[in-house]
Amino acid sequence: MNPTKIAIVTGGASGLGLATTQKFIEAGIKTIIIGRDENKLQAAATKFGSLCIYKVCDLSKIEEIPSLVNTIVQEYGVPNILVNNAGINMKKPFAEVTDQDFQSIVQTNLTSVFVLSREVVKKMMPTGSGCIVNISSMASQYGIPYVIAYTATKSAIEGMTRAMATELSPQGIRVNCVAPGFIATDMSAKALDNDPTRKQKVLSRTPMGKLGLPEDIADAVLFLASDAAKYITGVVLPVDGGNSIGF
């Protein structure tokens, strides 16, 4: 009987994170979800049962991350899997983005990913195993207007994935990244339904001709986190219906 694997999923109570949490729970993985909204976290934990545990933390407050990781390890053991999914976005014309706007997105989407990964890796190293899956975006593949800070952070996540994989894989820690295309979440549905021209553009350059579903991303994350991917590290896997190669 294998001991239960332990996963941390940031932003695990909504959207792609929630779908990932569900797949992990279905696979029998004890999943600790981290987020800012206690009501959403509680609802997810109630829905998924005893394998789902939540911790309330605003990851942009990076000084709180080390003690969060220590608490998780003391209570549940060293995590086998970390999914860096939490992220924020802001649509604004380039010239109107303030220093504060830019920094706040960098802090949540990039710096907190680095800090959380570093703290978890410190715990994984002595075990000689572990797996990290970062979540990137199509914004890192090509230029999308009005999302300069988001694009900067997601491009950095992909570079960081490769650098981390090269350095950590010899120590048994695999690091990979999933780059979602246009996925039908509440957030994207709102954006696209209010902008039919943009929606048409998205669908016309997606060879599969439809939006993806949150579980499509969750399936890819589960695969990369599983033993089925034990010889895969440092990859950025687009899950996008062909969008990144479409014309």
Automatic annotation (TrEMBL):
Domain of life from the UniProt record: Bacteria
CDD domains: SDR_c (cd05233)
InterPro entries: NAD(P)-bd_dom_sf, Sc_DH/Rdtase_CS, SDR_fam
Listed GO MF terms: oxidoreductase activity, acting on the CH-OH group of donors, NAD or NADP as acceptor
Family: Belongs to the short-chain dehydrogenases/reductases (SDR) family.
Protein name: 3-oxoacyl-reductase FabG
